[in-house]
Amino acid sequence: MLPRQHDPIVAIATAPGRGAVGIVRASGRDLQPLIDALCAQPLKPRHAAYLPFLDAEGQPIDHGLALYFPAPHSYTGEAVLELQAHGGPVVLQLLLARCLEVGQGIGLRLAEPGEFTQRAFLNDKLDLAQAEAVSDLIDASTEAAARSASRSLSGAFSQQVDTLRQQIVDLRMLVEATLDFPEEELDFLEKADARGRLDRLAAAIDAVLDRAHQGALLREGIKVVLAGQPNVGKSSLLNALAGAELAIVTPIPGTTRDKVSETIQIQGVPLHVIDTAGLRADHEASDEVERIGIARSWGEIEGADAVIFLHDLTRRGEPLYDVAEQEIAGRLGLAEAHADHPRVLHVFNKADVAQAETGGHLALSARTGEGLAALRDALLQRAGWHASPEGVFIARARHLRALRRTREHLAQAREQAALPDPALDLLAEELRLAHNALGEITGAFSADDLLGEIFSRFCIGK
Fold this sequence. Notes:
The protein has 462 residues and is of the alpha/beta class. It has three domains: 2-126, Gyrase A, domain 2 (2-Layer Sandwich), CATH 3.30.1360.120; 139-216 and 396-443, tRNA modification GTPase MnmE domain 2 (Four Helix Bundle (Hemerythrin (Met), subunit A)), CATH 1.20.120.430; 221-383, Rossmann fold (3-Layer(aba) Sandwich), CATH 3.40.50.300. Helix content is 45%, strand content 16%. It has helices spanning 32-39, 89-102, 115-122, 128-139, 143-153, 156-180, 188-191, 194-220, 234-242, 288-302, 319-331, 372-383, 397-417, 424-442, 448-456, and strands spanning 9-12, 19-28, 49-54, 60-69, 79-87, 109-110, 222-227, 260-266, 269-275, 306-312, 344-349, 362-363. Strands 3-4-5-2-1-6 form a six-stranded mixed beta sheet, covered by helices on one side. Strands 8-9-7-10-11-12 form a six-stranded mixed beta sheet, with helices on both faces. The two termini are 14 Å apart.
């Protein structure tokens, strides 16, 4: 995309389908030929004009609003023309075709996915984290995710990253100045309070990383898989969590043959809950379809963020049931059926009809809803969610990786600074690497292939 960044571009900017209003958006250095041909009158910058959009014969394609934003005062930083017409697919395609016909002389072409926002980034209208927040705001599945994406779009995340980068720059300047003038024999570590500043930087990175992790949970959600033997109540639990009859519930073992999934939200965090086929040995499966379903269940379990291992309180103590529990626990990596595990949450179902010792694990009734609130809280806690008093900004996996690398380089710098005779060149190098890692978040240090990958995931017209 980058070699063609100076071409004028055009695209339908609204979602496919019928609607009250549809928008065709163009961006480039000189869009006057489009204005002359389609609008047939001058447009006052940043003022809406109601007029006919004309075809090649001068006949109206539609009547609507035309808005012109001269460079650099536009979304992309280039001249932008928006034609707001009625939202029928045929009308919008006619307008788009007319723009491309008129724009042949200036090299107008169809925009690539995300190219308008990419130009906003390249023209310093947005940094990379803000540009990604545009897509995240569009894709937000909960109110909390939308508010967090809006916070990132406004620059809250970028400002924190820039503040940290500046603090690292200040330290780098002191270290490198000492390297350049060794004859001064400055006691750098003492006079500059390098150790204290590094400690404060590390604490600040941890705080930003924590908030970014919360934002990543809001964006990505948590994949939760319901696992357990047939008829322990997995489908009933899915229905109870979703508040709808999504899965078939019967007393017949093996009713669920394939996964059933639903996305719910708890405190604004999306939970992608997956009900799987009941787990038992292949030779116990009733037919080939159930065997395939069980194999798929284990595949979903391997990729889950959290696994709810559901136990049946009414069947505890039955020899065959207990043996099967231990076999499942073994495949989950548990030494015992009810052993603790960071990814596995033990839940004992049917508490409305049976009581037993659960070893401190959750007990609930999927039928009556007893204990569901505690389960929701436990899932959020297991995922590492907690509401931040300062608010959460949306974040992506690449942001978390960059922050963790920054933390690692700062840890190396702190180790070096703590030595009796530290090597200042190594300290300077770790600070440089930390500085660059932070720069990847906002795009201060970004490879072109990374930019292409990021913006290619946007919708066309944005």
